[in-house]
Q: What sequence folds into this?
């Protein structure tokens, strides 16, 4: 794919995100997305065969932007507890700084359906837990900085808390961002730390 084609593809995804944010999933038709970008429907369908393909690309794009953002926060962390704190904080800060992307993901994940009418994203992608599982195993098996618990269950718990805040953050329903981030980071710090007598 050449650079011009890549730019057009990314612009269509960004236009789709704007339509999802401003008008919701029901109105995020190929026609409305094309109108938002000032292009024809044919240009959109040249890059994305149908709405499902475009909506999947929106989700992949938004998640893809979060990864490098979080890595910058986590790069300087020299221990498992510090890395866990950086993971949680960077994830929440990304959501605050990119509310449109959070809203777009929520709209797609809550509405995109298969041909049989089932939610497309109803089955969890287990790979989302792997970074946390690795952090927990590092803290338990290598450093001894974390107490004994199931890394998989704790990873699900952390993700569940972060993901549950998506709608509130997107809707600006949380008044004190810094207090909320600090509270959640501290909660999992206490929940995972090894208690020494």
A:
């Amino acid at each position: 794919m050449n650079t011009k084609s890549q730019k057009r593809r990314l612009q269509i995804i960004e236009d789709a995100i704007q339509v999802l944010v401003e008008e919701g999933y029901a109105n995020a038709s190929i026609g409305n997305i094309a109108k938002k970008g000032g292009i024809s429907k044919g240009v959109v369908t040249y890059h994305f065969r149908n709405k499902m393909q475009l909506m999947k690309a929106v989700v992949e794009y938004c998640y893809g932007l979060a990864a490098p953002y979080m890595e910058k926060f986590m790069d300087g962390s020299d221990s498992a507890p510090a890395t866990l704190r950086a993971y949680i904080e960077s994830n929440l800060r990304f959501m605050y700084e990119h509310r449109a992307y959070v809203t777009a993901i929520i709209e797609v994940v809550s509405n995109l359906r298969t041909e049989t009418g089932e939610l497309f994203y109803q089955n969890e992608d287990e790979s989302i837990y792997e970074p946390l599982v690795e952090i927990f195993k590092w803290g338990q098996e290598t450093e001894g900085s974390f107490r004994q618990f199931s890394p998989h269950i704790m990873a699900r718990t952390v993700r569940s808390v972060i993901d549950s805040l998506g709608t509130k953050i997107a809707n600006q329903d949380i008044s004190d961002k810094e207090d909320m981030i600090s509270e959640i980071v501290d909660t999992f710090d206490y929940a995972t730390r090894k208690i020494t007598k």
Summary: DSSP finds ten helices and no strands in the chain. The chain has two domains: 1-49, 52-192.
